[in-house]
UniProtKB/TrEMBL annotation:
Belongs to the transaldolase family. Type 3B subfamily. Transaldolase is important for the balance of metabolites in the pentose-phosphate pathway. It catalyses: D-sedoheptulose 7-phosphate + D-glyceraldehyde 3-phosphate = D-erythrose 4-phosphate + beta-D-fructose 6-phosphate. It is an enzyme of class 2 (transferase). Pathway: Carbohydrate degradation; pentose phosphate pathway; D-glyceraldehyde 3-phosphate and beta-D-fructose 6-phosphate from D-ribose 5-phosphate and D-xylulose 5-phosphate (non-oxidative stage): step 2/3. GO terms for molecular function: aldehyde-lyase activity; transaldolase activity. One of its GO terms (cellular component) is cytoplasm. This is Probable transaldolase. Its EC number is 2.2.1.2. The gene is tal. It is found in: Cytoplasm.
Length: 216
């Protein structure tokens, strides 16, 4: 499973990229606002840190506006992936951009039928929002499961990019189901390494090693 980080914070992206475990980055207008940075500048900086796709979301809600913004965004770097909302205009834009070889991430997906439409529009990625789905009384994992089944039925190449991930259990379930990618906040990704028995084990080994009086 590929790991994307869901943030526009440069230091977090650098830290995770340095581990070699980071496959891409996703941003959205809220994350850009949170960073306090200029949209185009910060996107360019992120694209220079990671080799993989960096999702940058259009702001326009109409097809013509989305195409105009996509034109600006895709000039930033070769690894920019244009993020469009799951609307008729977003799907139309997705079809036009992907026919032209541009990578497109269709975002704000909350149903398997929406995901089916995105695949038909040639999306490179579909972003089902697990956490927000759960928040509203639905099972986000059922959504991932349904999309996996449908995409496999028709051998769609659109990658399932599980989004709105809130904790490690979401990551684990996505991996079990076979989501292609997951995007999570930096703290969730860093938290995956934590286990009390790992810490305890290291502590024990260090204490015993000290008793040997040896050094390496
Ligand atoms: C995905 O691309 C979105 O940016 C993100 O995962 C949304 O997550 P949230 O529901 O935690 O805001």
């Amino acid at each position: 499973m590929k790991f994307f980080v869901d943030t526009a914070e440069i230091n977090d992206i650098k830290e995770l990229a340095a581990t070699g475990l980071l496959d891409g980055v996703t941003t959205n207008p809220s994350l850009i606002a949170k960073s306090g940075r200029d949209f185009l500048e910060v996107t360019k900086e992120i694209c220079g840190i990671v080799d993989g796709p960096v999702s940058a979301e259009v702001i326009a809600l109409d097809h013509e506006g989305m195409m105009r913004e996509a034109e600006i965004l895709r000039k930033i770097a070769d690894n920019v992936c244009i993020k469009v909302p799951l609307t008729i205009d977003g799907l139309k834009t997705c079809k036009a951009l992907t026919s032209d070889g541009t990578k497109v991430n269709v975002t704000l997906c909350f149903s398997a039928n929406q995901a089916l439409l995105a695949a038909k529009a040639g999306a490179s990625f579909i972003s089902p929002f697990i956490g927000r789905h759960d928040d509203n009384g639905f099972d986000g994992m059922d959504l991932i499961r349904d999309i996996r089944l449908i995409y496999d039925n028709y051998a769609y190449e659109t990658e399932i990019l599980a989004a709105s991930i809130r904790h490690g259990v979401h990551v684990l379930e996505c991996a079990r189901i076979g989501a292609d990618v997951m995007t999570a906040p930096p703290a969730v990704i860093k938290g995956l390494v934590k286990h009390v028995l790992t810490d305890k084990g290291i502590e024990g080994f260090m204490a015993d090693w000290a008793k040997t009086g040896q050094s390496l």
